[in-house]
Design brief:
Number of helices: 16
Radius of gyration: 25 Å
Oligomer: single chain
Largest sheet: 6 strands, mixed
Shape: globular
Strand order of the largest sheet: 5-4-3-2-1-12
Distance between the termini: 28 Å
Helix content: 40-55%
Length: about 525
């Protein structure tokens, strides 16, 4: 008879591990849950069991941590709302394949390593799995690889990498060296250390915990860069316009008046004013009246950065007459000047499948599926990370700004134009349809990007969490969920480029190779 207890333990451990992510942030629970997973996989009888334990762990973790996605379906009336829960489960079943590949690969390589060691030494008995710490080194290395694959395959879904749980501890500052995926390896090693302590070992756990403890000390002691007195002034607007109001034609001008009131009266001192993703229902390149309305809110040297769509049409013949039909759109950020001109525009490059476009539309649309963002035409991707100049009419020194719209900010190593490094990143977002868990998880992702790149990040959202994040990933100012308001501040300064900013994801790849080499070099201990 098959013992089902290890499978149940793996599933429950995965559920428990999800509590380490925001908003609960119970990261010690995640470490303990991973320690249990390591024990289950290390002592698994075969590859299939090792794969199953990792997969069940992933199913539990992703289902609980990503349950907020179901909330988005309640705003799309062309599909049944209950479909959201099925969508979360299907997504979790897929995402769980990546930790399963890591656990199966580590189990197989560990057995190969022990077998080769036994043959080389001429010893007949294999070392005890429970007494050999080569396994966690292999698992940590493969965790880097599989989290990177999760973030890149099939457009990628990089949400909630395991290393993000380290933000409250301060140890996430190690992302400046090894990136987000490298943080995942530290989490695995720390969990393995807890397991070895439970097995009454001392020396090895100390070595495995040392990098995490040193990173935590560094994180708590590293000073945040002070905002200089002459820093550009910024205002971040959060109008608290819910998803059910956002696309209402009847509320269009009421919504604008709320944005305008929170923007404040024009001032002599120049300001950068940040509005959320898709803040206005205007086509700014085609509607001069809308540009004039926005320009009237600005002082002589202000700039307004707002989200709005850019649309494209194609001529289609209907009843013998050529008419323009909507062909596609860009999800864009526009820079509007006091002269009602468009200084620059950025278009979102990393789009959300099923959110902003429907994959395999010809197959899925006939069976009743639709994208979550209202509209018939799909969004089209922009060219990728760009640095946009922010120059005021008086010749104020030009700042370069990077933009990452909403979901784009979750992709480690893909947020900055490295040939033209910006002074900060603007991350307008619309988290109004993601319930109470999604927005705070999104904020955590942005904090990791700030740490990795050594850049401050400005977030403006319609219902929260809007925030000003310094280059150490610390939240300087924030507006919580379901509040209307604004943030006034000087723009926090950037730090010099970090190691990760210089080499990108080659840094965690180098760590992965080092972990593999160390696992091979260490001779398995005998039982």
């Amino acid at each position: 008879m098959v013992d089902r207890r290890p499978r149940l333990a793996a599933l429950l451990a995965g559920l428990a591990s999800a509590t380490g992510f925001a908003p609960l942030s119970l990261w010690p629970v995640t470490l303990l849950a991973l320690a249990l997973l390591i024990h289950l996989v290390e002592t698994a009888p075969d590859r299939r069991a090792a794969f199953t334990y990792g997969w069940l762990f992933g199913v539990g973790q992703f289902t609980l941590a990503l349950h907020w996605i179901a909330h988005a379906f309640t705003f799309q009336d062309s599909m049944p709302h209950w479909l959201g829960y099925g969508g979360v489960l299907l997504l979790s079943l897929y995402l769980a394949l990546f930790p399963a590949l890591a656990t199966m690969g580590a189990w197989w390589l560990h057995r190969k390593r022990r077998s080769l060691s036994r043959e080389g030494s001429g010893v007949g008995a294999a070392p005890s799995a429970a007494s050999d710490f080569g396994f966690p080194l292999l698992l940590a290395a493969l965790w880097i690889a599989t989290e990177y694959l999760r973030a890149t395959l099939c457009t990628g879904f990089a949400w909630n990498p395991i290393g993000i749980i380290l933000l409250p501890s301060g140890a996430a500052i190690a992302a400046t060296l090894i990136g987000t995926y490298g943080l995942g390896a530290l989490v695995i090693l720390a969990s393995a250390a807890l397991l070895l302590i439970a097995r009454r070992q001392v020396a090895v756990p100390a070595a495995l915990l040392a990098p995490l403890l040193l990173a935590a000390l560094w994180g708590w002691l590293a000073p945040a860069p002070a905002t200089p007195p002459g820093a550009p002034r910024i205002r971040v607007v959060q109008p608290n316009i819910g998803q059910d109001e956002k696309y209402s034609v009847e509320r269009e001008f009421a919504n604008f008046r709320k944005l305008a009131a929170l923007t404040g009266e024009p001032r002599p001192a120049p300001r950068l004013i940040f509005w959320p993703e898709a803040a206005i229902p205007a086509y700014l390149d085609m509607e001069p009246d809308w540009r004039a309305r926005l320009a009237a809110l600005l002082g002589p040297d202000d700039l307004l950065l707002t989200g709005a769509d850019k649309v494209y049409f194609k001529p289609v013949e209907q009843d013998g007459i050529l008419v323009n039909k909507l062909a596609g759109a860009n999800n864009s950020v526009w820079i509007v000047t006091p002269q009602a001109a468009i200084a620059a525009r950025y278009s979102k490059a990393h789009l959300v499948p099923f959110g902003e476009y429907l994959p395999l539309r010809s197959v899925l649309e006939p069976i009743g599926l639709s994208r979550l963002v209202p509209g018939d035409a799909d969004f089209w991707p922009g060219p990728g990370p760009q640095s946009l100049p922010l120059a005021a009419a008086t010749g104020r020194p030009t700042l370069n700004m990077g933009v990452q719209i909403c979901y784009e900010i979750v992709f480690s190593g893909q947020v900055v134009d490295r040939a033209n490094r910006p002074a900060f990143l603007f991350n307008p977002s619309n988290d109004a349809w993601f319930g109470p868990w999604g927005p705070v998880q999104h904020l955590a992702q942005a904090r990791l990007r700030a740490l990795e790149e050594g850049l401050p990040i400005i977030r403006s959202t319609p219902t929260g969490v809007s925030a000003i994040i310094d280059a150490r990933g610390r939240v300087v100012h924030a507006l919580g969920l379901n509040r209307a308001g604004f943030l006034d501040s000087g723009l926090p300064p950037a730090l010099p480029p970090t190691l990760f900013a210089a080499v990108g994801n080659w840094a965690p790849f180098a760590l992965m190779l080092a972990l593999f080499a160390l696992a091979i070099a260490i001779r398995p201990s005998k039982s």
